[in-house]
């Protein structure tokens, strides 16, 4: 529990510096929401990806670190984690994933 609180605090601080998460962040997106319900901003950000990457990002839906919708903070960032390509909302989330990849891969793969 303390570890999660420390990570969350780090996420807020890192996000404030990197433009990622904030204390007034919107609630996490519901998984399974169809692409038609994307906000115009999310659709515009996802349109910046290749068709293949866009399909993967739309399937993943949320950043496993911030739990924000992919595309809500600009074009999602594609990274390789233990041989698996995943998307994060911003570069600020990469360090957090690298510290505990199993936890975040489990979120993506569920």
Tell me what you see in this structure.
There is one protein chain. With 110 residues, this protein is mainly alpha-helical. It has one domain. The chain is 45% helix and 9% strand. It has a two-stranded antiparallel sheet. A hairpin with a 2-residue loop joins strand 1 and strand 2 (84-88). The model is unreliable at 22-35 (pLDDT under 50).
H/E order of the elements? Answer: HHHEEHH
**Tally of alpha and pi helices:** 5
The structural class is: mainly alpha
State the assembly state of the protein chains.
single chain
- Through-space gap between termini: 21 Å
- Strands across the major sheet, in which order? 1-2
| Largest β sheet strand count, sense and barrel closure | 2 strands, antiparallel
Q: Residue-averaged pLDDT, rounded?
A: 80
How many independent structural domains?
A: 1
Spans of at least 5 consecutive residues whose pLDDT stays below 50 are 22-35
């Amino acid at each position: 529990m303390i570890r999660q609180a420390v990570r969350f605090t780090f996420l807020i601080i890192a996000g404030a510096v990197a433009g990622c998460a904030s204390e007034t962040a919107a609630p996490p997106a519901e998984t399974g929401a169809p692409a038609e319900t994307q906000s115009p901003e999310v659709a515009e950000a996802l349109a910046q990806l290749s068709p293949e990457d866009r399909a993967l990002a739309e399937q993943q839906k949320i950043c496993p670190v911030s739990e924000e919708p992919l595309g809500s903070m600009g074009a999602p960032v594609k990274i390789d984690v233990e041989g698996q390509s995943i998307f994060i909302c911003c570069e600020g989330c990469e360090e957090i994933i690298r510290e505990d990849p199993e936890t975040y891969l489990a979120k993506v793969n569920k």
